[in-house]
Amino acid sequence: MNFKFLLLAGGALLSSTAASAGGYQVTLAGQKNNGMGGVGVGLSLDQAAMFYNPGALAMVKDRGVQLGVNATLARNAFVAEGGSQQRQLRNSTVTPFNLYAGFGPAEGKFRAGIAVYTPFGSKLQYANGWEGRTSLTDITLESIYVQPTFSYAITDQLSIGAGLMILAYGSVNLQRDIPLPDSFGHIELDGKAENKIGFNAGVFFKPSDKLSVGISYRSKIDAQVKDGDVTFTNVSPSFASRFEATKFGATLPLPATTSIGIGIMPSENLTIGLDVNFVEWSKYRVLRFDFDKQVNGNTFSESKRFYEDALTFRVGGQYKLTSGLTVRAGGSYDMTPVKDGYVTPETPDNDRISGTLGASYSFGKFGVDLSAQYVGIQKRTQTQQDLLNNGTTDRIAGTYKTNIVIPGLGLNYNF
């Protein structure tokens, strides 16, 4: 029996199928940005600049605190190669959140702040008895980043900033069925990721009231589980000696991202943003699991990923209708890093097209932000011949189609 299935974590430690970016990356960090197609690198909208471009934080006029939450509602359909029955996900919802607090003197040149956000997370529960049950049945992934940030305005037009990205919490739970001669057993991997530190830095330049540009860089972090639990159930005593592992370890690269953004302000009430994100997915070549004891005669397992670097293009705008009401719209095109023949059930990824809407209403120092996104992941088919050609028979041949709806709500207070 081949146990490469344990690595169908192609986002295994911290993946994100129900997200707004390709692979296992999530960009739901700011409610205003969410309504504008996810732009933000070349803008200084609010405290969420800590995520999109720390260099822009010093140009945010207001000090404030904001809290936001999203609900990712995914509809995934799968038809196995040669079959006709369409399998659906069991209902699941993920709620990534964000919290920002920005401080500094009202007339000063610097801003400092703290950001808490969930850049990776997913929950997928495939239909009972689906054709890929021996590859994956359930996956639950969670992560929380904490980012202390400092930004300084060198001049009235130029500012810089940086923050420490701390992987404060990460967890993974993967489950699948095990084919046995007379029945199906079940395996569950459950682990916590170690704390890790990276950085986020950016530069923001606003040469005039009608134009701004920015560039930011988010560093790579290796998420590591060193002492995860392995549990076998429904394995008859006659086969128990082949499944002795109780612990596992694995490492997943969370890739670096370089982003460039432009802000255009044709009038006092209209703001337009354009962003391009470059994600270094090519660092993700192989995912390896190491076990403390044998799993069907093996103490480790490897699975090919061979991801490619990918680009995301974003555009969005906002218009201030009244002193209190602002409306937004946008969209994005996200290129998948997953090559043909390398698609896995936990990340049935392909190029994504997204449309967004949003609105804010402020009353005094308080404000409410609403956002909504529709993400259409293009239909993706891989054949058994594709898997044989690439040596990736640890996954299943067939056609995936996924659509995602993501409503969001934010509250903010300026002081």
- How far is the first residue's CA from the last residue's CA? 62 Å
Helical run tally: 3
Strand order of the largest sheet: 1-5-6-8-9-11-12-15-16-19-20-21-22-23
Query: How many DSSP E strands?
Result: 23
**Proportion in helices:** under 10%
CATH class: Mainly Beta
Low-confidence stretches: 1-20
| SS strand fraction | over 45%
Average per-residue pLDDT, rounded, comes to: 88
Describe what you observe in this structure.
A hairpin with a 2-residue loop joins strand 11 and strand 12. The protein has one domain: Beta Barrel (Porin). It is mainly β and 415 residues long. It has a 14-stranded antiparallel β-barrel with strand order 1-5-6-8-9-11-12-15-16-19-20-21-22-23.
Identify the notable features of this structure and list them briefly:
Porin, 14-stranded antiparallel β-barrel, mainly beta, 23 strands, 415 residues
Write the layout of secondary structure elements.
Blueprint: H1 31-34, H2 49-52, E1 64-70, E2 72-80, E3 87-88, E4 93-94, E5 97-103, E6 110-117, E7 122-125, E8 138-153, E9 158-179, E10 184-192, E11 196-208, E12 211-218, E13 221-233, E14 247-254, E15 257-264, E16 270-279, E17 286-295, E18 298-304, E19 310-320, E20 325-334, E21 352-363, E22 366-382, H3 384-390, E23 398-414
Antiparallel strand pairs: 1-5, 1-23, 2-3, 2-4, 2-23, 5-6, 6-8, 7-8, 8-9, 9-10, 9-11, 10-13, 11-12, 12-15, 13-14, 14-17, 15-16, 16-19, 17-18, 19-20, 20-21, 21-22, 22-23
Structure in a nutshell:
With 415 residues, the protein is mainly β. The chain has three helices and 23 strands. A hairpin with a 2-residue loop joins strand 11 (196-208) and strand 12.
